[in-house]
């Protein structure tokens, strides 16, 4: 791996995208419900979400908790009491960020307690419930019913307990059918006084639905659950308000100190042909400081491992462009001072890193690819859920091997960085000492809440600045925050802005000027820069994004 970049580069940088045009379509399935998420988040900020009384202790065992999601206190057919719902912070248990809630009516097959299944909450991005409990062993039962899907594959999600996936690709309709009680139980161990149960969408076009949750001691003291496997979720950090987690990313000093330029323009290079411009890596303009090669995919022979080679499409389009040609081009870009990293995932690429074995394979395989092609680091663009603990393990293993010059970037979707309790946000905070930059995708998302609690529509300077402010006010250093936008209208399904608006958003955050209707709570002169999806799309428009944004970065304070 080339070390010529040490004098110029920083150990932080990242992007987001989608195979075959990942960025264009990936988040559209979420955009259909983004308005709901934004509305609910707004209610959370304003305090309008109902706070039900604490409850669920129906036996002498005070560690038993039963929750009727989005419902009121309810006594079931076996005289067990299910507590009315509440947000975490109103008592020793409660829900985190809601992505919607609702109710149904009519009979529910497979239960004598239809009413318990009639109300539900919707979750995504690792959000769910947190319980303050004495340390020990418990059993967790999640109760669900499908009232929306009309066939398999329409709603698919993962369930996590304290960051570990206990149920993967759970499809209620496929497992149980419509309007049928569908319960799953898992063992869990509490250490540190908290238990978190999170939900992450993993297919289909709707959020995870939860009707009720029961937590009972593993010895059965006060419980009626059923058994099945186990695994943990995000992080036991509370609620949805932007309270910073107390871990101020340990950079050495105001200088990024990672070897990269003070300001970064990051772009993605396509290893596929999607009707944008196919080009050899060596043709990428030097206005780009970091180039993310998109994408590395899962090695089917090595769970959690990453595989990569030049695609047949690109090779054919460029007259036989080979792996050796790419490696030579990587070195050529590095010699001029451009970092080249491998982006993992995209909309269609799902590399699962949810066990220690997978984390080890991820680190080993990435290191091998870095040796083969000379890559300077990795971009995490996994859009189907991540395990913060296991991905942290993988990235720290890689950092131990490569050293401080390793570039680590992330490209989460907008929704993934709304709250500090989400998987992506937790990962960013957990690895802040080795993280280069988080380039959130501020597009394909619909309307979202900013750090001030107001709802902003995508495609505006207010949207970009107000959502970046969430990260800036909640634990990431300004030099770890970048603004990700599409290079052309064709590069995304929504959220395109003229590159001059990207410059305005950078000015807003760095100096407080050009903010439109948004008033930032502070200024962040060290804001790191911008990212675009993608270099290939930018090429179709004469590199207008790069030619507009790169010079502006040099004018920031």
UniProtKB/TrEMBL annotation:
Pfam families this protein is in?
A: Glyco_hydro_18, Malectin
Disordered: annotated span? 1-24, 215-263
Q: Does the keyword Hydrolase apply?
A: yes
Q: Keyword Hydrolase, does the record have it? A: yes
Keywords associated with the record = Glycosidase, Hydrolase
- Matching SMART domains: Glyco_18
Family label: Belongs to the glycosyl hydrolase 18 family.
Q: Which GO terms describe its biological process?
A: carbohydrate metabolic process
Q: What is its EC number?
A: 3.2.1.14
Ranges annotated as spanning the membrane: none
Taxonomic lineage is:
Bacteria, Bacillati, Actinomycetota, Actinomycetes, Jiangellales
Q: Which GO terms fall under molecular function for this chain's record?
A: chitin binding; endochitinase activity
Bias type Basic residues, positions: 1-13
Name the record gives this protein? chitinase
Q: Which residues form the GH18 domain?
A: 263-556
Q: Which domain of life is it from?
A: Bacteria
Biased composition regions of type Basic and acidic residues, renumbered to the chain? 14-24
